[in-house]
User: What shape does this take?
Amino acid sequence: MPEHVVDLDRRTFLKVSAVAGAGLVVGCGICPDLPTLTASEDGKQELIPNAWIRISADDRVTVMVKHSEMGQGITTALAMIVAEELEVDWQKVRAEIAPAKPVYKNPLAGIQATTGSTGVRTSWDVLRKAGAATRELLIEAAAYTWGVPVKECRAVNGTVVHQPTGRVLRYGQLIEKAASLPLPQSLVLKSHQQFEVIGKRFPRLDTAAKIDGSAVYGTDVRLPGMLTATVIHPPVIGGRVKSINATNAQQMPGVRHIVPITTGVAVVADDYWRASQAAEAVEVQWEASEGQRLLSTDRIRARWAELAKTNGRKVKDHGNVGHAFAAAAKVLEAVYELPFQAHACPEPMNCTVHIHDGVCDIWAPTQIQGGTQEIGAIVTGLDVDAVQVHTTFLGGGFGRRASADFVAEAVELAKQVKAPVKVIWSREEDIRNDHFRPASYQVVRAALAADGTLLAFWHRLVGNEWLDSFAEAFMPAYMPGWVPRPVKNAVTTVALPITKYLMSAKYATINAGTVGYAIDNVRVEYIHDNPGVPVGLWRGVANTRNAFVVESFVDEIAAAAGKDPYRMRYDLLKNEPKLRAVLELAATKAGWGKPLPSGAHRGIALDDFDGTPVAMVAEASVNAKGKVKVHRIVAAVDCGTAINPKIVEAQISGGIAFGLTGTIKGAITIKDGQAEQSNFHDFPVLRMDEMPEVEVYIVPSTAAPTGIGEVGVPPVAPAVANAVAAATGKRVRTLPIRPEDLV
Amino acid sequence: MLSLSVNGKTHSLDVDPATPLLWVLRDTLGLTGTKFCCGIGECGACTVHADGKPVLSCQVEVQEVAGQEITTIEGLRGPVADALRRAWVEEDAPQCGYCQPGQIMTAAAFLASNPHPTDEEIIAAMSAVLCRCGTYPQIRRAVRRAAGR
Assistant: This one.
């Protein structure tokens, strides 16, 4: 028997199970508190065995989800993990987004947040244990009720059965007894062979509410006495209000307040339409520095092209790159450029705030409950605990809602107008004031031997990273809530520049200098330059830039070496069996090397998103006008245990659509200090008639689950660009691909 | 006062007659299933029916549809709606879900006018509604399934 099984008399069942080898015995470790009974909102009694589960007298099981639901299916996935061990009827399971509390912190993010595709990864272990512990508690409650040994009882589909007599008690009938018992201290978890829920194509829990109009997003929040506001932001990034003439706007019907806030001018009315009409009638004089007014993509590019000629900070330096280039028979060099990208969440940025009775209630479609709570505390001056975060459904997140600029505005405004207020941005404000995917300027070089062997890979990246906007806003949120504000401020002042310096290089160079390829000499250099454009997390983060550069350049290398791009990658992955397996799976399923219908060509690309390898083969053709048509994308992914393969497939397929928008549709350009784009007419998003056929293959695995939400994005651009190069002989080194570059 | 019939119920409304139907539905009547997304008629998220025909509610003044029967996602009923909702569930089409009311309202009006569409017709009709999550394959299959194919 494993030594960490706690030897309690009443845990006889566990010892027997462990000896029988039915599964994995683990310490519980999640349940320091005793189970409690409480009344739920509808007055029904509920058992709360731990922070993750509630069971009502009528057998309803509520799973508390520490993450935001923005479409990635996290509510369903986490509920399935609980249901597997809890032995419960799926029809009785519902999910609830957790409030902001220390227990719901995301251990990989260091703060309560849904970022970095970490939801399932960070919940897998704790939720299996929570489910198993609760099941054991209910079994024990039944055994006590019947006066029989625990080992004679079994949990089956939301009930406990006394096997010798066939007596049955529903979970709901056991909650009072269970509340009087302590949670078990050690558990037996199922093995993969025993899974009945995990790995199945279970229906999503949120579909019903999303097809009858009842799902509540941030924009749908309604409170008694609530006012609705919109915000006019400066026409130049970083600009400030100089003066406001609201004489006409103030006279318009339904208009309540027109007030300056830190980030612009808020127009508050009885409803959104009146606020937005009045906003158009407000005349604002703005002030901005010359540098802010002249900021443009062209200027940024010019500066980065100069910076790229200087030495950067060495982030990776394997072997001897200098010697390898000196000894090379052939040297390749290329410059790649990536633009700023907008998130274009379908639900524009919004937030509702009510400050009352020493409490600040925030309803927000947010990916960052920890940061939202902290910002509420900073702006109101209240304690962190007095700020309550109610997370609605998110109408898209994609990383945009990991910033909380829109939350800060709503709290500031609610403080001023002394009423519950909902702030909604127009689409134009949403696009122009996005926290964009950072642009980047990258130079790559390869040294080849006479026989085509890749001797060295050299990679220099210029740009900045989401931390430049993010760390500033959220550093205090990483400290415990009880730390006094002056201390938080002092620590922030000291730690901010160091954090930005160290972490930006780390995050900006993910998978730079190739991913997993066996190359003896590799150097990656990073030059950090913040051009003054707000940046943030964007689905797929730096991988979306670096996979495009590296995987496109690898195809350039293959062409120069006279090698097949798939075979060359395969050979270079000799030390990376997981990466090699997805590459081979994608190539095989796509029929790599077999002829395609005339006009279509294939391109292949690979990425490793924080432990989730993904490979894609794209089939594309280019017409006489240079228009790219992507016909089919075959993807292979290894995400460890796939909790729900249907959701995994949907995430890869959705990631492909997101990636294609950045590959063949839109980009953000800056001119005269502001984004030139403002809505879907000039920031076009992929439509159904541009969506390729998608096939997703999941590598079977019993390893712990890894992330899936972002991994579908990075390989899309290089796979399509490589297919375009195969079709036209033209190498794409900037995105999005423009028809004029291909004719 | 302006009279507006929504989901079979007639409302007397004290609103500016030039207010877009979208904001009357959402803010005045509290029917928040119809979504605000682009405000310029580019994305289709705000699609509702006026006398059974799809309209972009952000582009229609409420006075223009005062005499017509408005149907929103909350009030969408009937055999086509049932078939669509079943198909949407079977495909688990929504991800974030924000555009899905507009997708379903568009699909319902489309299937009512063309009960046996080809794939090309489905794609042409449904390309009117943007989905940033990229649920297009699921939606395409769901519409096909709802059409009995």
